[in-house]
């Protein structure tokens, strides 16, 4: 079972990027999903989370600019990033809590991380 993020890249200030993160494997259900980021020399921080029912939570620094969404049928979470700023430059990581099935046994697992995708915003 893994999370695979995509969509990072280079954008100019004021521009937009859309990140995607798909979970694959023997997944029974996914609870909360989210995006975090880590800028050079800084600790990883929350960007946004979304519950299985669609409830969302955002860091103050991205409210009004970023939108998190998910497609439960595709086990995928998205992050639409608009009005990008140079301070949004970071490696973005997706995160999920899930129930998986291994050898006929169901197992709940929290704080599963994908490999990051780099977002660079130029001024």
Structure report:
With 123 residues, the chain is an all-beta fold. It contains no helices and eleven strands. Strands 2, 4, 5, 6, 9, 10 and 11 form a seven-stranded mixed beta sheet that branches. A four-stranded antiparallel beta sheet has the order 1-3-8-7, with no helix packed on it.
Topology (elements, then pairings):
Blueprint: E1 2-6, E2 9-12, E3 17-24, E4 27-38, E5 45-50, E6 56-58, E7 66-71, E8 76-81, E9 90-102, E10 105-113, E11 117-122
Parallel strand pairs: 2-11
Antiparallel strand pairs: 1-3, 3-8, 4-5, 4-9, 5-6, 7-8, 9-10, 9-11
Descriptors for this entry?
7-stranded mixed β-sheet; 123 residues; 4-stranded antiparallel β-sheet; mainly beta; single chain
Radius of gyration: 15 Å
In round numbers, the mean pLDDT is: 96
Please give the count of helices.
Answer: 0
Amino- and carboxy-terminal Cα gap: 38 Å
- The dominant shape is elongated
Q: H/E element string?
A: EEEEEEEEEEE
Task: Summarize the model shown.
This protein is an all-beta fold. It has strands spanning about 1-5, 10, 15-25, 25-40, 45-50, 55-60, 65-70, 75-80, 90-100, 105-115, 115-120.
């Amino acid at each position: 079972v893994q999370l695979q993020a995509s969509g990072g890249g280079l954008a100019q200030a004021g521009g937009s990027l859309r990140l995607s993160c798909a979970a694959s494997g023997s997944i029974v259900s996914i609870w909360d999903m989210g995006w975090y980021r880590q800028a050079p020399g800084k600790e990883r921080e929350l960007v946004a989370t979304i519950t299985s029912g669609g409830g969302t939570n955002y860091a103050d620094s991205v409210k009004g600019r970023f939108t998190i969404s998910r497609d439960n049928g595709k086990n995928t979470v998205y992050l639409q990033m608009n009005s990008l700023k140079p301070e949004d430059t970071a490696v973005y990581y997706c995160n999920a809590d899930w129930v998986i099935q291994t050898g006929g046994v169901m197992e709940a697992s929290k704080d599963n991380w994908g490999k990051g995708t780099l977002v660079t915003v130029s001024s």
